[in-house]
């Protein structure tokens, strides 16, 4: 399973490509440092709590509105929570269970997955508790003459009256929809599209009364806090008493709701969605990088005015057909040792069919070490770390096409949209703009003919081929007093 994904040439994703994106999403969760995971989880706990505040506000005082319409309006309001998580950034337990895909792909261990879940769960609870403290301190339960708080009490109490099997099943149904909402976001890179994608699945689970463990971390403790802390004036205003809500306590919350709902959320998200799609789209071996992810540098329509000296020089005349390559199943430590021994910064990764599947570099190792707090997981392979966004060339491409690729970033030199509309202006000449550019291009390029790996070309190879333009090679001779350059 590839570890990254780029849209195909049509700008759309097909279901199998969405599976690849989900695999990358799952693996990425394991690469974040603990402090980042917990911080993002706290933010997600706050976001979901904010969504429930919105839900309570929208559904309060709707006695004259139809039951379904009122709950649908509340569901639309609650979708704000997942939108904030997806767009703003957050680690939500109910979507983090999709990391089961990384376990199925043998990219992380089962223990590592449970560690991720535990960190996110604790962070979500902390975030929900912090928001709860603010809401109670602000006295929000007294809004609308106390009807806001009464609505919150009734919602919280209702959540404790499910039988364990009911709570478990409602948890499955809830996270089936939450993870499907997240799954839908894999089909687009546009933020507005992602936001719209999550609205209806979330609105359905909320309006239907399905159970979400992180939402309940805020909602039920809110009811408990109101039952314990609300002043007598509140109870007089709403015509109720604390005794009517005596079952709102921590023990009932944990045993009657949180535990069965959490287990149901795991089954619904990790089992039905994550592992369900994985079972459908999983592949028995690492495939070649799809054509949509290998970007050729040049097309047949590219025409250049080139010097007579290099008019006929093509890649197949100077590429390295014996370049060192790696294989995806190779352990990271062995691959790194081989690169260091050969003084290489990276190497192409090919499978048993001589197809390019990725590129593994020193940079990938450094990123992995940083993400793992310099305590890397045992058993990692090249396939776990390698990049799969590949830029390739053909053996028929010319030397000067390669030289221009390394020298010039055309989108920066000629900043226009696809319609030819200029996106920025400069008083500098073309040559000055070219000299001011700071570009990063892959130093090593795989040569691919008929989808098969045939060699590599490096930036050094290109410069070596162009060296003759400067004339004959000069030899530096060092004397005792000075350095003399002689032919």
TrEMBL record:
<comment type="similarity">
    <text>Belongs to the FNT transporter (TC 1.A.16) family.</text>
</comment>
<dbReference type="InterPro" id="IPR023271">
    <property type="entry name" value="Aquaporin-like"/>
</dbReference>
<feature type="transmembrane region" description="Helical">
    <location>
        <begin position="167"/>
        <end position="186"/>
    </location>
</feature>
<feature type="transmembrane region" description="Helical">
    <location>
        <begin position="37"/>
        <end position="56"/>
    </location>
</feature>
<keyword id="KW-1133">Transmembrane helix</keyword>
<keyword id="KW-0812">Transmembrane</keyword>
<dbReference type="GO" id="GO:0005886">
    <property type="term" value="C:plasma membrane"/>
</dbReference>
<dbReference type="InterPro" id="IPR000644">
    <property type="entry name" value="CBS_dom"/>
</dbReference>
<dbReference type="GO" id="GO:0015499">
    <property type="term" value="F:formate transmembrane transporter activity"/>
</dbReference>
<dbReference type="InterPro" id="IPR000292">
    <property type="entry name" value="For/NO2_transpt"/>
</dbReference>
<feature type="transmembrane region" description="Helical">
    <location>
        <begin position="76"/>
        <end position="104"/>
    </location>
</feature>
<protein>
    <recommendedName>
        <fullName>Formate transporter FocA</fullName>
    </recommendedName>
</protein>
<dbReference type="InterPro" id="IPR023999">
    <property type="entry name" value="Formate_transptr_FocA"/>
</dbReference>
<keyword id="KW-0129">CBS domain</keyword>
<dbReference type="Pfam" id="PF01226">
    <property type="entry name" value="Form_Nir_trans"/>
</dbReference>
<dbReference type="InterPro" id="IPR046342">
    <property type="entry name" value="CBS_dom_sf"/>
</dbReference>
<keyword id="KW-0472">Membrane</keyword>
<dbReference type="Pfam" id="PF00571">
    <property type="entry name" value="CBS"/>
</dbReference>
<feature type="transmembrane region" description="Helical">
    <location>
        <begin position="116"/>
        <end position="141"/>
    </location>
</feature>
<feature type="domain" description="CBS">
    <location>
        <begin position="319"/>
        <end position="377"/>
    </location>
</feature>
<dbReference type="InterPro" id="IPR024002">
    <property type="entry name" value="For/NO2_transpt_CS"/>
</dbReference>
<feature type="domain" description="CBS">
    <location>
        <begin position="415"/>
        <end position="474"/>
    </location>
</feature>
<feature type="transmembrane region" description="Helical">
    <location>
        <begin position="258"/>
        <end position="280"/>
    </location>
</feature>
């Amino acid at each position: 399973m590839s570890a990254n994904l780029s849209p195909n040439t049509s700008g759309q994703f097909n279901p199998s490509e969405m599976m690849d994106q989900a695999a990358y999403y799952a693996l990425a969760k394991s690469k974040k440092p603990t402090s980042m995971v917990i911080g993002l989880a706290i933010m997600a706990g706050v976001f979901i709590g904010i969504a429930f505040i919105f839900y309570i506000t929208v559904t309060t005082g709707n006695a004259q509105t139809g039951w379904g319409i009122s709950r649908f309006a509340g569901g639309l309001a609650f979708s704000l929570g997942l939108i904030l998580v997806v767009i703003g950034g957050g680690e939500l337990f109910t979507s983090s269970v999709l990391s089961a895909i990384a376990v199925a792909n043998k990219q992380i261990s089962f223990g590592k997955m449970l560690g991720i879940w535990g960190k996110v769960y604790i962070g979500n609870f902390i975030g929900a508790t912090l928001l709860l403290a603010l809401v109670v301190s602000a006295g929000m339960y007294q809004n609308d003459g106390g009807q806001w708080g009464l609505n919150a009490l009734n919602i919280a109490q209702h959540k404790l009256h499910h039988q364990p099997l009911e709570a478990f099943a409602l948890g499955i149904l809830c996270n089936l929809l939450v993870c499907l909402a997240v799954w839908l976001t894999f089909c687009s890179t546009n933020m507005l599209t992602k936001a719209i994608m999550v609205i209806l699945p979330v609105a359905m689970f909320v309006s239907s009364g399905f159970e979400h463990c992180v939402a309940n971390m805020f909602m039920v403790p809110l009811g408990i806090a109101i039952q314990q802390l609300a002043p007598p004036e509140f109870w007089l205003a709403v015509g109720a008493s604390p005794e009517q809500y005596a079952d709102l306590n921590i023990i009932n919350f944990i045993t009657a709701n949180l535990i069965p709902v959490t287990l149901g959320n795991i089954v619904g998200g990790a089992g039905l969605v994550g592992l369900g799609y994985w079972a459908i789209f999983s592949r028995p071996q690492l495939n070649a990088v799809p054509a949509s992810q290998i970007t050729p540098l040049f097309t047949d329509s590219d025409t250049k005015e080139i010097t007579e000296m290099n008019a006929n020089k093509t890649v197949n005349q100077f590429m390295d057909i014996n370049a060192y390559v790696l294989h995806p199943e190779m352990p990271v430590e062995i691959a790194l040792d081989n690169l260091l021994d050969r003084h290489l910064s990276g190497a192409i990764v090919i499978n048993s069919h001589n197809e390019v599947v990725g590129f593994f570099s020193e940079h990938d190792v450094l990123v992995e070490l940083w993400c793992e707090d310099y305590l890397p997981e045992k058993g990692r392979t090249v396939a776990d770390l390698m990049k799969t966004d590949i830029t390739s060339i053909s053996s028929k491409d010319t030397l000067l096409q390669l030289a221009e690729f390394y020298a010039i970033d055309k989108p920066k030199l000629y900043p226009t949209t696809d319609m030819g509309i200029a996106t920025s202006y400069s008083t500098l000449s073309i040559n000055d703009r070219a000299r001011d550019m700071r570009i990063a291009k892959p130093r090593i390029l795989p040569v691919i003919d008929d989808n098969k790996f045939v060699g590599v070309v490096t930036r050094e190879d290109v410069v070596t081929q162009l060296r003759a333009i400067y004339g004959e090679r000069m030899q530096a001779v060092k004397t005792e007093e000075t350095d003399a350059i002689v032919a």
